[in-house]
Amino acid sequence: MGALSERRAARYGFSTAAILLGGLVLASCQSGPAVDLANVDVAQASTENISSLTQVVSANPQDPEAYNVRGSAYGRGGRYQQALKDFDTAISLNPNFYQAYANRALIYRFMGDQNKAMADYNRALQINPSYDAAYIGRGNVYRQAGRTQEAFNDFQKAIQLDTTDARAYHNRGLIYQGQGQHAYAIEDFSTAISLAPDASEPYNGRGLSYLAMKQEDNAFADFNMAIKLDAKNAEAWTNQALIYEQRGEKAKAAKSYREAVRLKPTYQPAKDGLSRTQ
């Protein structure tokens, strides 16, 4: 039941909010929308694209947006040190560049430095208290640290700002789910699905809450959809197997548990389920 991470947010097609880097290359100026790393598609991190972005940086060495765009591409490609260097440069050129602070914070999160991530999210929100992406990012840092109420407050704030980012609803839904408030969780997961219909994890999350409310058919449909959207989702395979097991279909359950274990060998619920059913 992991949170919908920023990496997977792009991978699973939050296309309504995605900004194509190519367009930013052609209109790389501060008056335009600054790129948000969370909304950059992984495909934009190709060597060819980064090469073209480097040409833009070379032609515009004093343009902070050029560094921010290339840093986002580096970040999506897992080249974190290069990304940090570009965001550092963007911020040095424009100390009020709140998007660059939030993008750098996300890189720090990927690298496991939650303290630096928190400091950058705080700075981004100090500059722009209405920046929804920073509330969502900081909320994830809070949630990881077990500071559930503060996480909830940040996701709530992003939603109050009319965010169209499905992560805010998905992550608030996870908190409701953890508190046993499954009706609220289902509502939030459903909103996340409406905003990002190609994302697997909100279906898996909603399925768990349906299961908790003894709506087995709805849960089963959601787990099946989660698998259809992402065949590598070990949690969804495990949850599908659990319903098969509850229905007495042990052979089907074992097959799904086995797939979950193959995908995630250390996932204990799948290992336990396979032991019960094979």
Automatic annotation (TrEMBL):
SUPFAM superfamilies, alphabetized: TPR-like
Protein origin, superkingdom: Bacteria
Repeat region (TPR), residues: 64-97, 98-131, 132-165, 166-199, 200-233, 234-267
Statement: the UniProt record of this protein carries the keyword Endoplasmic reticulum: no
Alphabetical UniProt keywords: Repeat, TPR repeat
UniProt key word Amino-acid biosynthesis: no
InterPro entries the UniProt entry points to: TPR-like_helical_dom_sf, TPR_rpt, Ycf3
Protein name: Tetratricopeptide (TPR) repeat protein
Lineage: Bacteria, Pseudomonadati, Pseudomonadota, Alphaproteobacteria, Hyphomicrobiales
